[in-house]
């Protein structure tokens, strides 16, 4: 009985982490499309693929992704707690509604990969490739009773 509840807790934690990763990736893609993520200069240094926290909070509230600024900060803190977003210099573990630069770890290659994350990222790559493909073909085909990836 105790073992079953432990397995259930682990499964729920894994599902929550997956949901956070998906939400973070969807947000990252929308911010790239909205041109909020870009190279920025600060103190004679260029930081590639980053965003200003204050601008992001404004965007989240104006696009009704968060009810208010405090909620938006909590959402971003949650992404920081799951190592999806970080301060460009990794100075602060706390997300602040200020003119500070943050970046998605996927954009700078510092995302901590384990087997689950690698599987998720491969699925995301396949999805993005399918979205950019103009023809309406399926990613998977059935050949000789086996599903094969033909990308």
The CATH homology group name of the largest domain: Winged helix-like DNA-binding domain superfamily/Winged helix DNA-binding domain
Instruction: Assign an overall shape.
Output: globular
Mean of residue pLDDT values = 81
Query: How many structural domains?
Result: 2
> Regarding CATH, which class of the largest domain?
Mainly Alpha
Order of secondary-structure elements? HEEHHEEHHEE
Oligomer: single chain
Q: What structural class do you assign from the helix and strand content?
A: alpha+beta
Low-confidence stretches: 134-151
Fraction of helical residues = 40-55%
CATH topology of the largest domain: Arc Repressor Mutant, subunit A
Cα distance spanning the termini: 45 Å
In DSSP terms (H or I, runs of 4 or more residues), the helix count works out at 5
Extended strand count: 6
Largest sheet descriptor: 4 strands, antiparallel
Instruction: Identify the CATH architecture of the largest domain.
Output: Orthogonal Bundle
Radius of gyration: 18 Å
Strand order of the largest sheet: 1-2-4-3
Indicate the proportion of strand residues. 15-25%
């Amino acid at each position: 009985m105790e073992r079953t509840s432990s397995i259930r807790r682990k499964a729920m934690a894994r599902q929550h982490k997956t949901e956070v990763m998906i939400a973070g990736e969807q947000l990252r893609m929308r911010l790239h499309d909205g041109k909020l993520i870009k190279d920025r200069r600060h103190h004679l240094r260029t930081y590639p693929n980053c965003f200003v926290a204050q601008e992001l909070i404004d965007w989240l509230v104006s696009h009704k992704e968060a009810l208010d600024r405090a909620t938006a900060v909590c959402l971003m803190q949650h992404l920081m707690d799951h190592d999806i977003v970080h301060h460009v210099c990794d100075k602060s573990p706390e997300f602040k509604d200020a003119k500070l630069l943050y970046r998605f770890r996927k954009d700078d290659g510092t995302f901590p990969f384990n087997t689950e994350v690698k599987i998720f990222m491969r699925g995301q790559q396949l999805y993005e490739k399918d979205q950019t493909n103009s023809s309406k073909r399926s990613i998977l085909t059935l050949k000789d009773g086996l599903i094969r990836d033909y990308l």
